[in-house]
Structure formats: C-alpha cells, structure tokens
C-alpha cells in the first residue's frame, strides 16, 4: 500500500533529494527524471513521490495528474529528441521485469528503424480456449 517514503528505496531517496537525479519535471505528487541506463537518449521515468510498489497500490485519484504529467513530458521529450514515436511502459513485480519496487512509468523515445523489437506474440489453441480465458477474467471483476 502507499506509504509516504521508504528509507532504503532508491526512488524514495531520489524523491527526497538524498541522491541526485537528472530531473526534467516535478509536481507536488510526481517526479520525472532521466533513466540512468536509457533504451534511447531521453528515456524518462515518471515516479510518484510517495512510496508504492505497483499499479494496484496507486490511489486512483493520482491517475489524472499522472496522465497529465506523462502527456506533457512525453510531448516535450519527443520534440527534444526528434522521436517519431513513444513507448509508455510500466512493469509490475519481478516476473514482469520490475527491478525497482517503487511504481514508475517509462517514457521511451522511439525512432523509425531503431530496431527495438516488441515481445514475440503467440496465439490461442482455438476460440474455446480464448473464450475461457476471457470468462475467467470477467468472473473476477
Ligand atoms: P524497472 O525494470 O523497475 O521497470 O525499471 C527500473 C529503471 O530504473 C531501469 O530502467 C534503470 O535503468 C533505472 N534506474 C535504476 N536505478 C536508477 C538510479 O539510481 N537513477 C536513475 N536515474 N535510474 C535508475
Ligand atoms: Zn520508494
């Protein structure tokens, strides 16, 4: 659940100003700074200042300000880098590639022919299997 800050969390420490970051934008609730190991130059992280691990821990009221910040920073970084595209990526839990357990969104500038491949896509065995998966999700909503 959302906690104000955690002492040993790298992004909490950045939000507190205990360790430096290359900041590009800040509000009362959110911070945007350059990823230290960018997929491409301008790769930016948008981070709630309060500690929360994953999407499910985020107060829904933060959704509006978050989208505003991502649109604003995303447009600026596309202009600044000359990118023709932008990926918005957010990983939840280690199985999905989350390395830093403090909620964050990646804004990744993309260029025609930059060679960054998307995930491989699979298929369902048949319509019955696809329908069963959808039904299992619907039952839990
Ligand atoms: P995740 O895999 O958790 O979605 O992404 C974590 C991201 O945080 C990685 O892309 C990594 O390069 C970035 N990162 C990790 N530590 C630091 C840091 O100390 N400063 C900055 N600016 N980025 C960091
Ligand atoms: Zn944290």
What does this entry show, briefly?
By secondary structure, the protein is α+β, with helices and mostly antiparallel strands. It has helices at 10-16, 63-81, 127-139, and strands spanning 23-26, 30-34, 44-48, 85-89, 105-110. The chain binds guanosine-5'-monophosphate and zinc ion.
Topology at a glance:
Elements: H1 10-16, E1 23-26, E2 30-34, E3 44-48, H2 63-81, E4 85-89, E5 105-110, H3 127-139
Antiparallel strand pairs: 1-2, 2-3, 3-5, 4-5
Keywords:
alpha+beta; binds guanosine-5'-monophosphate; globular; HIT family, subunit A; five-stranded antiparallel sheet; 141 residues; binds zinc ion; 3 helices; single chain; 18% strand; 28% helix
Structure explained in plain terms:
Helices cover 28% and strands 18% of the residues. The chain is built from 3 helices and 5 strands; from the N terminus they run H-E-E-E-H-E-E-H. It starts with 9 loop residues before the first helix and ends with a helix. The protein has helices at 10-16, 63-81, 127-139; strands spanning 23-26, 30-34, 44-48, 85-89, 105-110. It has a 5-stranded antiparallel β-sheet, covered by helices on one side. The protein has one domain (10-116): 2-Layer Sandwich (HIT family, subunit A). A hairpin with a 3-residue loop joins strand 1 and strand 2 (30-34). The longest helix is centred in the middle third of the chain and has 19 residues, at 63-81. By secondary structure, it is α+β, with helices and mostly antiparallel strands. 20% of the residues are buried. Bound molecules: guanosine-5'-monophosphate and zinc ion. Guanosine-5'-monophosphate binds at residues 10, 21, 33-37, 91, 97-100.
């Amino acid at each position: 659940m959302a906690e104000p800050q955690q002492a040993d969390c790298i992004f909490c420490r950045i939000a507190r100003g205990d360790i430096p970051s290359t900041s590009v934008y800040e509000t009362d609730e959110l911070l945007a700074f350059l990823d230290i190991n960018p997929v491409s130059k301008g790769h930016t992280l948008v981070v709630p200042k309060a500690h929360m691990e994953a999407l499910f821990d985020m107060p829904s009221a933060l959704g509006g300000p978050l989208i505003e910040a991502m649109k604003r920073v995303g447009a600026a970084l596309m202009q600044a880098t000359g990118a023709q595209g932008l990926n918005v990526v957010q990983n939840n839990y280690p199985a999905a590639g989350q390395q830093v357990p403090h909620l964050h969104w990646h804004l990744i500038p993309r260029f025609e022919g930059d060679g960054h491949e998307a995930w491989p896509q699979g298929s369902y065995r048949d319509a019955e299997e696809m329908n069963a998966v959808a039904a299992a999700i619907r039952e839990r909503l």
